[in-house]
Amino acid sequence: MNRPLKGRGADKVTRRSTNSVTLDDVAAHAGVSPQTVSRVIRMPDLVSPSTLETVQRSIAETGYVPNLAASNLASNRSMTVAALVPAVSYSVFADTIHGLDAVLSPKGYHLFIGSTEYDREREEGLIRAFLGRRPDGIVVVGTEHTPAARALLKGSNVPVVETWNWTEDPIDSLVGFSNRDASAALVDFAHERGYRHPAFGGWLTGRDSRAYERRIAFEQRVAELFPGESIRVVDAGTQGISIEAGRALLERTLHEYPETDVLMCASDIFATGALLEAESRGIDVPGQLAICGFGDFELSRHLSTPLTTVTTPNLEIGRRAGEVLLQRMLGESSEPTTLDLSFQLAARDSA
């Protein structure tokens, strides 16, 4: 049973056969014109504080939900942005989403979030689905896509920002850093610390293109700095990206390359598992074996042996991507932007 509405003009409130409250109902309840209610919803900055408060209170009390579909058709703007990340459960990508939302939300934009699960075909499907909902902008983690996905993004007629990597051929705008340079810098660090038998571990037969770039950079830099040294690479196999896979990586490294004195992992998740497995085996880290990660996940700083890793600008990537999108969506800029936010090495107790 519907409760009677209270407020100025409440006696004028009517409902459609669907029992939904209309914009006219809110206007009657607030004692203002429908145009004023529309202005409060679409351009609140142009309304006086007292009127804004009155109309917003009426919207809350009547339970009015604006018909955004109709508004979008009229304005040709959806006030939404699509964000595609490999996994929403990883803190590094959650940070990027938080940074993006912190910039876009105050301007009235809402996020559609899709998880690609490191699968390019799945990413292509999500791009198709999101474009069908007419977002005003798109943010995607990574620069490697299927040809069809790349064509969809290029032909979408909305600003696109690729993130978390670097390429000389971006689709539109690019906000990120070079995974290759970061991985090479980690090899440099190990060399300077006096390690002589490095190994690299990760999900190398999987779909993480950024991990692949880290591996390639590792192999190239080891060949340059450690002439004559074997290239030691260990694959997590079918276990994917997990702490258990990191434990298995350590076991395989000790079995296949027992001389390894520093294990560099494609992700902090692997490195955390390797570190926990080393501790369970009584291996002195870093005395017998040093372990390094990539990404500087929140957990990495709080392990019993804090993890040496590459710190990536997760939150800043989201913020700067949001700023680039806003400039394009609001018509303040028409040109693509490329921002290299670089990275830092966090030298801690594990290496």
Number of strands: 12
Globular, elongated, flat, extended or rod-shaped: what is the shape? elongated
For the biggest sheet, the summary is:
6 strands, parallel
Low-confidence stretches: 1-18
Question: Helix and strand succession?
Answer: HHHHEHEHEHEEHEHEHEHEEHEE
Secondary structure: helix percent: 40-55%
Q: Write down the Rg.
A: 26 Å
Distance between the termini: 67 Å
Tell me the β content. 5-15%
- Summed up, the helix count is 12
The strands making up the biggest β-sheet line up spatially as: 2-1-3-4-5-11
Class computed from helices, strands and strand pairing: alpha/beta
What's the rounded overall pLDDT mean? Answer: 91
Topology:
Layout: H1 23-30, H2 34-42, H3 49-62, H4 68-75, E1 80-85, H5 91-104, E2 110-115, H6 120-131, E3 137-141, H7 147-154, E4 160-163, E5 173-176, H8 179-192, E6 198-202, H9 209-225, E7 232-235, H10 243-256, E8 262-265, H11 268-280, E9 290-292, E10 309-311, H12 314-329, E11 338-340, E12 344-346
Parallel strand pairs: 1-2, 1-3, 3-4, 4-5, 5-11, 6-7, 6-8, 8-9
Antiparallel strand pairs: 10-12
